[in-house]
């Protein structure tokens, strides 16, 4: 119970979510005051996570900024990851660029790949004996994704979803309120006839 699934252009979560959270969108924001009680799954263009996540975070995005706390594991596949938050579990990060802020903290081991093998310095962010390891074996997953084509396909799917949703809503309204619409159509015809 308490799970939430969202799809949209710009999405901002303003209240705590008791269970899992699944989001697909263009711009996604989870503000500082918001706590997610379960796992979080995100596919988005620009993503800001300032709130806390009690479970795991699995994210695919263009630009991802994480300043909150992830109590579970992090799995990120992104063009750019900016991290100044805390990850308590293990992390697997595949990104063109990784920027670690001075407050970044990893309490579990990190496996990562960036375009440049020395593209990220995890030394100051590792805590409690956790280790970060560059893993070139993660690269094939990144190379398989055509980011520009994927973004275009995602926007096309979103546009189709909106069109189909609008059509279904219209059909449902007509089905449930058929007599209402029929009566209004009759009034419109009478009004048009009087106007002529």
Keywords:
single chain, 196 residues, alpha/beta, eight-stranded parallel sheet, three-stranded parallel sheet, 3 helices, 13 strands, 27% helix, 39% strand
Helix content bin: 25-40%
Spans of at least 5 consecutive residues with low confidence: none
Beta-strand content bin: 35-45%
CA radius of gyration: 23 Å
**Quaternary structure annotation:** single chain
Shape: elongated
Q: Could you describe the largest sheet, including whether it forms a barrel?
A: 8 strands, parallel
Order of helices and strands: EEEEEEEEEEEEEHHH
Query: How many strand units?
Result: 13
End-to-end Cα distance: 59 Å
Arithmetic mean of pLDDT = 84
Number of helices: 3
Q: By helix and strand content, what is the structural category? A: alpha/beta
**Spatial strand order of the main sheet:** 1-2-4-6-8-10-12-13
Architecture overview:
The protein is of the alpha/beta class. Helix content is 27%, strand content 39%. The chain has 3 helices and 13 strands, in the order βββββββββββββααα. The protein has helices spanning 139-143, 147-176, 178-195; strands spanning 4-12, 21-30, 35-36, 40-49, 52-53, 57-66, 69-70, 74-83, 86-87, 91-100, 105-106, 110-113, 132-134. The strands form 3 sheets. The protein has an 8-stranded parallel beta sheet. The N and C termini lie far apart (59 Å).
Summarize the structure.
This protein has 196 residues and is α/β, with parallel strands linked by helices. The protein has helices at 139-143, 147-176, 178-195, and strands at 4-12, 21-30, 35-36, 40-49, 52-53, 57-66, 69-70, 74-83, 86-87, 91-100, 105-106, 110-113, 132-134.
């Amino acid at each position: 119970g308490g799970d939430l699934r969202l799809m949209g252009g710009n999405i901002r979560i303003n209240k705590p979510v008791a269970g899992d959270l699944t989001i697909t969108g263009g711009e996604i924001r989870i503000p500082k005051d918001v706590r997610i009680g379960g796992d979080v799954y995100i596919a988005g263009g620009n993503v800001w996570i300032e709130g806390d996540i009690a479970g795991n975070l699995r994210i695919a995005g263009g630009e991802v900024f994480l300043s909150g706390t992830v109590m579970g594991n992090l799995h990120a596949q992104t063009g750019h990851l900016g991290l100044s938050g805390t990850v308590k579990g293990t992390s697997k990060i595949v990104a063109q660029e990784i920027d670690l802020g001075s407050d970044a903290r990893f309490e579990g081991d990190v496996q990562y790949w960036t375009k440049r093998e020395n593209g990220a310095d995890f030394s100051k962010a590792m805590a409690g004996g956790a280790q970060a390891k560059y893993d070139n074996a993660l690269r094939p997953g990144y190379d398989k994704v055509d980011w520009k084509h994927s973004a275009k396909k995602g926007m096309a799917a979103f546009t189709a979803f909106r069109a189909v949703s609008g059509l279904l809503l219209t059909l449902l309204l007509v089905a449930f309120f058929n007599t209402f619409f029929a009566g209004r159509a009759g009034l419109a015809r009478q009004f048009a006839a009087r106007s002529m």
